[in-house]
């Protein structure tokens, strides 16, 4: 779910004309509400009826992203990295295992920028 959520967040930032996003709240995995519940939360990734989904607040950002703080992602770099997993072959209806390199400092920067 994390991969799909981050991918959709990157898509959303790019669709709205932004360069990246920052996660500004705790990320929660919550149970899907009953079909007849009055849900005020609108998930950005539909996980299917009865399946849990992730909820967090993000702030859309413009470049330069390096000075924005923690939990900041370059939307284009993140989307490009995750695209093969999101659109590629699935393993038991989930993305195939991969290293979550996008969570480490310096993701999306050149070697010179990261040092």
Q: Can you offer a commentary on this structure?
A:
The chain is an alpha+beta fold and 115 residues long. Helix content is 27%, strand content 18%. The protein is built from three helices and seven strands; from the N terminus they run αβββββαββα. The strands form three sheets. Strands 4-1-5 form a three-stranded antiparallel β-sheet. Helix 1 packs across helix 2. The longest helix has 14 residues.
Summarize this entry quickly:
By secondary structure, the chain is of the alpha+beta class. The protein contains three helices and seven strands; from the N terminus they run αβββββαββα. Strands 4-1-5 form a three-stranded antiparallel β-sheet. A two-stranded antiparallel ribbon has the order 2-3. Strands 6-7 form a two-stranded antiparallel sheet.
Query: What is the distance, rounded to the nearest whole angstrom, between the alpha carbons of the first and last residues?
Result: 31 Å
Strand content: 15-25%
Shape: globular
Structural classification: alpha+beta
Work out the oligomeric state of the chains in this entry. single chain
Uncertain residue segments: 38-43, 111-115
Cα Rg = 15 Å
* Average pLDDT for all residues: 74
Series of secondary-structure elements, N-terminal to C-terminal: HEEEEEHEEH
Question: What is the makeup of the main sheet?
Answer: 3 strands, antiparallel
- Portion of residues within helices: 25-40%
Instruction: Compute the number of helices.
Output: 3
Total number of beta strands? 7
Name the strands of the widest sheet in spatial order: 4-1-5
């Amino acid at each position: 779910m994390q991969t799909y959520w981050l991918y959709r967040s990157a898509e959303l930032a790019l669709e709205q004309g932004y360069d990246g996003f920052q996660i500004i709240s705790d990320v929660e995995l919550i149970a899907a509400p009953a079909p007849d519940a009055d849900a005020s939360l609108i998930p950005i990734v539909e996980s299917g009826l009865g399946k849990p989904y992730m909820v967090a607040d993000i702030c859309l950002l413009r470049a330069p992203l390096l000075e924005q703080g923690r939990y900041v992602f370059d939307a284009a770099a993140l989307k490009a990295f995750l695209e093969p997993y999101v659109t590629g072959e699935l393993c038991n209806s989930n993305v195939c295992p991969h290293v979550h390199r996008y969570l480490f400092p310096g993701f999306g920067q050149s070697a010179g920028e990261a040092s």
